[in-house]
Amino acid sequence: MKPFTYHAPRSVEEALSLLEQHQASCAVVAGGTDVVIELNEGVKRPEHVIDISKISELRYVKEEDGLVKLGALDTFTSLERHPYVQEHLPALYETVIHVGSPQIRNLGTIGGNVVNASVAGDSPTVFLTYGAEVVLKSTRGERIMTIEEFNQGPGNCQIRPDELLTEVRFPAPGKDEAVGYFKIGKRKSLAIVVLAVSVYIKRTADNRVEDARVILGAVSKHPMRVPALEEALKGLPLTKEALEGTLPLFTDAVQAAIANRPSVVYKREGVRGAARRCFDQILTQFGLM
Fold first, then answer.
1. Where is the FAD-binding PCMH-type domain (predicted)?
2. Where does residue 29 fall: left (phi above 0), alpha (psi -120 to 50 degrees), or beta otherwise?
3. CA-to-CA distance for 245 and 260, rounded, in angstroms?
4. How far apart are CA 200 and CA 112, in angstroms?
5. pLDDT, average across residues 42-60
6. Could you point out which of 13, 14, 147, 279 has its C-alpha 20 to 30 Å from the C-alpha of 7?
7. 3 state DSSP class of 165
């Protein structure tokens, strides 16, 4: 590991000042579950390391002005234990309880997970389904962009060297909106995502699909929306039989995304089961199952 100067700011303002000064050669550490490994292995060789883990103002879960706002330093464990997440955001809860080991959930932060922009990242898929945005701050001001704009592929998020991701936010789901999430991993514990499916449905008064978002994770360089599936879902009655009638389209989407790669066989079959679990979650949230 190359020697570096260590900084531990206690406020966002102090962190942004350090980023402005040292942006040419610095690394930001939150939980450290990814960056510390990269430092140890020499993948990153910064002259300055800015540890933001002590910035308490970036730890919060709140609903405000019709938006759910999550502080970038919320850990997966803190989200798992938060009553609002448990009661109102079942898909996010389903996501965070299946991230890595207890040690990783205790340390890993949602901001770090989003910025890492891994193909196998847990939170970006479900955040995209919720229609989330990220808030980026620097001494020059604030930028807001959608997760879809922000995540451009493995390790390629649209954050500038002097910026800090401070918040993930999305519209608070109403009673006629539901999100389902299910991931497939190679093992029951410490599972890296090999396939994730997340589905958002807004219903009409007579229990039909008014609007839909379908996201597939770990089949492309970033979480991928599937417009053809979204259109196929619109107008369908909210019944198990009707929703599962679209399952062959999930297989088609996976086949088109990963072509002839070796993983295509189990992913194109596994996606049906994952989508079925999403539909079951959604119907349960609507009280229709």
1. 1-175
2. beta
3. 25
4. 24
5. 90
6. 147
7. strand
pLDDT digits (tens, 9 = 90+) for 224-237: 899 999 999 999 99
What is the side-by-side strand order in the sheet with 193-203?
177-185, 193-203, 209-217, 224-225
**DSSP 8-state class, residue 151:** B
* Cβ-based neighbour number of residue 130 at 10 Å: 25
Give residue 155's region: left, alpha or beta (phi > 0; psi -120 to 50).
left
Q: How many helices (H) and strands (E) does the chain have?
A: 13, 12
**Positive or negative, the Cα torsion across 126, 205, 243, 220?**
negative
Residue 137 corresponds to which tokens in the numbers above? 């701050």
d(CA 130, CA 177): 10
The 3-state secondary structure of 97-133 reads CCCCCHHHHHHCEHHHHHHHCCCCCCHHHHHHHCCCE
Sheet containing 5-7: give its strands across. Answer: 5-7, 48-51, 26-29
The residue that leads in pLDDT, 215 or 157, is: 215
Q: Which two tokens stand for residue 55?
A: 């910035």
Buried b (16+ CB within 10 A) or exposed e, 257-281: bbeeeeeeeebbebbbebbbbbbbb
Distance in angstroms (rounded) separating the CA atoms of residues 143 and 139: 11
What is the H or E stretch that residue 27 is in? strand 26-29
- Which residue is associated with the tokens 């704009």? 149
Token code pair at residue 220: 């492309």
Q: What is the mean pLDDT of the chain?
A: 89
Q: For 199-224, how does the pLDDT look when each residue is reduced to its tens digit (9 = 90+)? A: 999 999 999 999 999 999 888 878 88
